[in-house]
Design a protein that fits this description.
Endonuclease, Chain A; nine-stranded mixed beta sheet; Methane Monooxygenase Hydroxylase, Chain G, domain 1; about 20% strand; alpha/beta; polyphosphate kinase like; about 725 residues; globular
Length: about 725
């Protein structure tokens, strides 16, 4: 393959081609007949949402790189060697995946009909259904619909990113009037995308899309003009979502972000997706008015339905297929009415979504009303829309605690929500820190200070995932609750760095247990890999097991190549981007590299080094990417409790044994399922639940389950 040949010269696979391979794994789940039908539809929605963000961010960035590659001006970005080649390859692969997507969706439609679930168009409605959608249109849709006669508007209207549009051609069958074009934005933000219709029998479910309701009523909408023929097709525009933060020292970071959000809404189009059956005249008109080019690679023909991300919320009209296993309380926390009392005695590792997220919230709630607690400090990156974390912090302020939140305003696509959280927190009296120039704060840490007998003790947590109770139901993460003096002293150092940071201040220093980015992690990883390499060359046991979301840093990949050639046993569990060539005849021990795509999003980062028999185990917020290692504040935490370290190792062993949802990460990006030992199927997410649940039972505590709503994998 052309891109592989080029990458071999670079020693790595192009990051964006690898990402498309990851999204193919998501599409595989939609195609898998063993996955429940509703979940398969959700995976189509996830695939579509992933692709939208890929174009908004990565394709937009590559286009910028292409523009800048011929410029002599210096810019603050890591340029790909051949952005134009990568863009061409992306275009080809996206079209191939689009064809595959359409085939999968057509198959799913047939299976839905077998279950008597029908997604119907306006031409397929009986009289009762026609009357229903006419009434629905008049009562709900009409006032939320603004038709635009675009040919009569001098300036072409701004088309919003993420919105779906109906392009309409108005004509007369006798040709007596000139054709006209109109646009209608679907009001799906207000009304949703799906409407359940009255069905002719109780065992059937008929569903119609919002655009088909509008299509059915086009004659009503445009009756004023005297046309008798109305044809329409859907399309959408994807825009560059990058926020440029200029160097104007007279503006604050908040002002820059607010300006960037406004500019994002008018970013350059990077993709125009349309119904391939669209009228040629309308298509040419839209391409011209949007200043697009057929040669640019921006044009993506597709099927009749777009914005499949809405299908993540497809109506639940499917037959029930068993009961979803619920998360349960960690056994150590069931023995005490207070989470804090347990954490002050011993470390506790929560494994989400198997363990409930509630104890973490409970610990903050306890701190909020504890008269001995004086201070709470915490980071925030992506918060739930109705955050119980925030509610606990506000309660703490009202109870007289000093609360500091390091809120990262630049969390992509959460910038607006975080600006709102900032305002609310400050209104309540919380001290809000808003980041460090040119560096995102991605660490997930918390520090609570408590005075007992004139002595201050510190406790809190270090996590691999966002402090978000909603995503904790669907993201696989680890969170260490601890009062270890060394770890918490380093957490305190990080918050002191945040609070005292000034431009020109030196890097974060002094950590003795935590390994922070950007100051230390890269250097320490190189040292630990080098140690394993040295041991292997001395013919001694050497191994490392690494789990993360993405592995793309070329310098660290080079170190892994050296280690594999020396004979280090390397096992990798990488969910998404994987730029390393895992197959090489010079590797003394074959590298085992897998990706697991299943119901939950594998989001945790865990690093285990054999270290001459004295294993070192870490959890981390950092992937092995340039952005994480060099341009973010991250926290990598050693696991000092031997029992917890062993538990993490056993969880990774279960994942390495997965032969149901694991795919090999090979050099050709083929995404072949790992099917070793077919006589004993291991689906790791189910086995991890069973492992942790049975472990809780062995503690002679019946795990209490939590009534958490069903939710599923979303990439990101």
């Amino acid at each position: 393959m052309k891109e592989i040949t080029e990458a071999m010269r670079r020693k790595t696979i192009a990051r964006d081609i690898s990402w498309l391979s990851f999204n193919s794994r998501v599409l595989q789940e939609a195609a898998d007949p063993t996955v429940p039908l509703r979940e398969r539809i959700r995976f189509l929605g996830i695939f579509s949402n992933n692709m939208d963000e890929f174009f908004r961010v990565r394709v937009a960035t590559l286009k910028r790189m292409s523009e800048y590659s011929g410029s002599k001006s210096r810019i603050n970005m890591h340029l790909e060697a051949s952005p134009d080649r990568i863009l061409n390859e992306i275009q080809q692969r996206v079209l191939e995946q689009g064809d595959e997507f359409d085939a999968i969706w057509n198959g799913i439609r047939k299976e839905m009909e077998h279950e008597k679930i029908y997604l119907v168009a306006g031409t397929e409605l009986d009289h009762t259904q026609q009357q229903f959608i006419q009434n629905y249109f008049e009562e709900e849709v009409r006032t939320n619909t603004i038709p635009l006669m675009v040919e009569s508007i001098p300036t072409f209207p701004y088309l919003r990113d993420k919105s779906l549009y109906l392009g309409v051609v108005l004509s007369r069958s006798d040709g007596s009037m000139k054709r006209k074009y109109a646009l209608i934005e679907l009001p799906s933000r207000v009304l949703g995308r799906f409407v359940i219709l009255p069905s002719p029998s109780l065992d059937e479910h008929h569903i119609i899309l919002l655009e088909d309701i509008i299509r059915f009523n086009l004659r009503n909408i445009f009756a004023y003009f005297g046309y008798d023929s109305y044809d329409s097709w859907v399309f959408k525009v994807t825009r560059d979502a990058e926020i440029d933060l200029d160097n104007d020292v007279s503006t604050t970071l908040i002002q820059k972000i607010e300006k960037g959000l406004k500019n994002r809404r008018k970013g350059k189009p990077v993709r125009f997706v349309y119904d391939k059956e669209m009228d040629k005249g309308l298509l040419d008109y839209l391409i011209k008015r949007l200043n697009l080019s057929r040669k640019s690679g921006n044009l993506i023909p597709g099927g009749r339905i777009h914005n499949f991300r809405h299908f993540m919320d497809f109506p639940d009209v499917f037959p029930k297929q068993g009961h979803r296993k619920r998360s349960f309380i960690h056994p150590l926390l069931q023995k005490s009415p207070r989470v804090t009392d347990v954490v002050l005695e011993q470390d506790v590792m929560l494994h989400f979504p198997y363990h409930s997220f509630n104890p973490l919230i409970d610990m903050l709630r306890e701190a909020a009303i504890d008269p001995n607690v004086t201070t709470i400090k915490i980071t925030g990156y992506r918060l739930a829309s109705n955050s119980k974390i925030i509610n606990a912090l506000i309660n703490a302020v009202r109870n007289g605690k000093h609360v500091t939140v390091m809120l990262e305003l630049r969390a992509r696509f959460d910038e607006e929500a975080n600006l709102e959280w900032k305002e609310r927190l400050e209104d309540e009296g919380v001290k809000v820190l808003i980041g460090i120039p040119n560096m995102k704060v991605h660490a997930k840490i918390c520090l609570i200070k408590k005075r007992i007998n004139n002595f201050t003790i510190h406790y809190g947590f270090v996590s691999t995932g966002n402090l978000n109770e909603k995503t904790a139901r669907v993201y696989g993460d680890h969170c260490l609750l601890t009062s270890d003096r060394g770890i918490m002293a380093d957490v305190n150092r990080i918050f002191t760095y945040f609070e005292n940071f000034r431009e020109g201040t030196g890097p974060l220093k002094g950590c003795k247990f935590l390994i922070p980015c950007p100051t230390s992690l890269r250097r320490e990883l190189v040292k630990m890999i080098a140690r394993e390499t040295k041991l292997a060359r001395e013919k001694k046991p050497a191994a490392m097991t690494l789990k993360m979301n993405s592995l793309s840093d070329e310098d660290l990949i080079d170190k892994l190549y050296e280690a594999a050639k020396a004979g280090v046993k390397i096992q990798l569990i990488i969910r998404g981007i994987f730029c390393m060539f895992s197959e090489n005849s010079k590797f003394l021990i074959p590298v085992k590299a897998i990706s697991i795509i299943d119901e939950y999003l594998e989001h945790a980062r865990v690093f285990i080094f054999h270290n001459g028999g004295n294993e070192k185990t870490y959890i981390s917020s950092a992937d092995w990417m340039v952005r994480n290692l060099d341009h973010r504040v991250e926290a990598t935490c050693p696991i000092l409790d031997e029992g917890i370290a062993q538990e993490l190792k056993e969880i990774l062993d279960i994942q390495l044994s997965d032969n149901v949802k694991a795919r090999w990460l090979d050099n050709e990006l083929m995404n072949k399922y790992k099917r070793d030992h077919p006589e004993q199927k291991v689906r790791s997410q189910i086995e991890i639940y069973n492992y942790l649940y049975h472990k809780a039972m062995s503690e002679e505590v019946v795990p209490k389950t939590q009534p958490e709503s069903s939710a599923h994998m979303a990439a990101g």
